[in-house]
Amino acid sequence: MRANPLTIAAAAVFAVGQLATPSARAESFGIDPAHTSAVFSISHLGYSYTYGMFREASGTVEFDKDDPAVCQFQFAINAASLDTMNEKRDEHLRGADFFNVKQFPQITFESSSVEKTTGADGKAIYNVTGTLTMHGESREVTLPMEYLGEGSSPFNDYRVGFLCQTTLKRSDFGMEFMVGPIGDNVGVTVSFEAVRK
Q: InterPro entries per the record (predicted)?
């Protein structure tokens, strides 16, 4: 029995379409500022570490846990929102010696690629490579985003959460004031929830 040529053609088109269509589509999320923490630490004289945080952050995430190729991460932090619980020090950090927030009001990150790996504890890690811009300087960095989970919340929405822990050199971003007495390496911890749109 000969196959119908139209049936063969339809099957071929369907197969090509299946190959061209990702197995899943990335979902869009918006970062929840109330459940986002951006914390930094830096050595002072080698005798202690000073800790601070940024209180205002926003961003979007395109996420599919099974297909890192379609994932995207974008963040913006209000540099003037830094807080080390010392008003005099905070004003100095906002000034020209450090963040110079009047000239460079935002710290931004935009991803260019994402790769998925597995951590020692078996948790998924998304290595997010992209452009970090701070103090008017842009550098390519790779941020390890530990996937904490996703699901429905008591707020009648659907959320996904991540933890990022990394180290940056402030001198790479043109902040060289008192490198030595004040550390060059800055520990950065960011944890956030993002709500599905």
A: Lipid/polyisoprenoid-bd_YceI, TTHA0802/YceI-like_sf
